[in-house]
Amino acid sequence: MADPIATIFHVTDMHLCVEPDGGTRKNKRLLSRMLVAGAEHAWPQGAREFLGKAMWHREPALERLGPALRQLSEQEASASPGAPIVVLQGGDVEALGSWAPDGLVEYEAFPSFDFVHKRLRPDDERTEWLDIFGNHDTWPGRHPVPPPSGLAQINRVRIGTVPGLVGPWPDCQVLGVGEQVPLVIARVNTVAREADGEAFAYGVPSEHPPNGEDLSYVLDQLEAELGPWQHQRAVRAVLLHHPIHYARELADRHGPNRLMGADELAACLRDLRVQLVIAGHVHALDPPASAVGLEAGCQEPLEYPTVQLVAETPTQDWPPRGNRGNTNADLPTRSFCRYRLLAQGETFDIERTVFRWNDNEGEFMPVGGSPRVFRGIRLG
After folding, report:
1. Three-state SS annotation for 35-50
2. How far is CA 154 from CA 19, 95, 151, 177, 297, in A?
3. Nearest Cα residue to 344 out of 370, 373, 376, 372
4. What is the per-residue pLDDT across 51-96, written as a single tens digit (0 to 9) for each?
5. 89: Cα separation from own chain's centroid
6. Cα distance between residue 301 and residue 48, in whole Å
7. How far is Cα 90 from Cα 189, in angstroms, rounded to an integer?
8. Would you place residue 331 in the very low, low, confident or very high pLDDT band (cuts 50, 70, 90)?
9. CB atoms within 10 A of CB 209
């Protein structure tokens, strides 16, 4: 019989539009329509594609996300007493970055995080909440890119004033006590320092807060944090914004958004026997909802025992594509994920349920009849 290790709720890439007073921006639809209308005219192809992908949150989905997380976390607490519950927030909380004046810090500089922490975070003391930030969160909220000298760097330092994002990272959180199998979660920043990283949304494993260190420093810190757990009976997980494994079927749609140094990071995680990587950024479910298992070596450059799970956005709105002859059928849908970790002797299974937004019901609803289960991942 399976023993519950922990439940993870994975929420990422909300791309919210929140005003400094905490209210959601009321003009977001108008601005979105303006951008899309501009994209229909004789702009250069690259500019037309950029404007046509203007992204905003869907208000009804945002209103239901907090209650859904609270209800589900209460159900998990009742069903598996003693097993920890954690919500992993994977970055890109903000749609347009922070353009707060110099001198403002914490929630005053990043009102979207204030909104998320007060309105979405479950208040059940059993539920932990861990944040990470993405490239949209540190973006200074203006074009053209690159921004004025030093501005991007200011936001990379300043976001570390938000509660829960102070750092330093990589860090390590341990959930589970007593006779339970520990769940060890390391956070790694992947937001690039360079201005062109802001423009093209690629990632680089980086220290947080920034102090000029290189990739080898990040890998050394990961080894220091996770090394003591390397041969323990535990679940070792890494939370980051940019995926390490970049699914080939996503490459055409998200070509420039890759993670630099992915091979080196993957090798480090393999050596540390990290079993679980949790990422977002590409707004696509990977492995797809139809996947029933993961075989060793199928997630290059990740090697056994490392498995990566990427989630969609639960709230991002997708503007209509006008009269260009295409439809929204190929666009990502809104969802978040629940991962139940279940011990089976010396291995564990990951039971994934995708909760997808249903416009007709006005709720997040589980996809399909049975959860997808990824089996037989070594605990030791």
Report:
1. HHHHHCCCCCHHHHHH
2. 20, 18, 5, 39, 40
3. 376
4. 444 456 888 999 999 999 999 999 999 999 889 999 999 999 988 7
5. 6
6. 33
7. 10
8. low
9. 17
Q: CB-based contacts of 165: which residues, under 8 Å, 6+ apart?
A: 113, 131, 132, 133, 159
Q: Counting beta carbons within 10 angstroms of the beta carbon of residue 197, is it exposed (0 to 12), middle (13 to 18) or buried (19 or more)?
A: buried
This model's pTM is above 0.85: yes
Number of other residues whose CB lies within 10 A of the CB of residue 217 = 15
C-alpha–C-alpha distance, residues 61 and 317, integer Å: 9
Mean pLDDT value across residues 180-184: 93
And the tokens for 215?
């990739």
> How far apart (Å, rounded) are the C-alpha atoms in residues 240 and 210?
16
User: What's the half-sphere exposure (Cβ side, CA atoms, 13 Å) at 1?
Assistant: 1
Q: Which two tokens stand for residue 308?
A: 């990566």
Instruction: Burial-class residue 295 by CB neighbours within 10 Å (0-12, 13-18, 19+).
Output: exposed
In this structure, are strands 189-191 and 203-206 parallel, antiparallel, or unpaired?
antiparallel
Separation between Cα atoms, residue 35 and residue 15, nearest integer Å: 16
- 3 state DSSP class of 113: helix
Radius of gyration of the chain (CA): 20
What is the enclosing helix (H) or strand (E) of 358? Answer: strand 347-358
What is the rounded distance in angstroms from the CA atom of residue 236 to the CA atom of residue 333? 29
The residues, any chain, with a CB within 8 Å of residue 226's CB and separated by 6 or more, are: 172, 184, 186, 236, 272, 274
Quote the CA–CA distance of 234 and 183 in Å, as a whole number. 6
Q: What angle separates helix 215-226 from helix 262-271, to the nearest 10 degrees?
A: 20
Tens digit of each residue's pLDDT (9 = 90 or more) over 187-228: 999 998 766 666 667 899 999 999 889 999 999 999 999 999
- By CB atoms closer than 10 A (0-12, 13-18, 19+), residue 324 is exposed
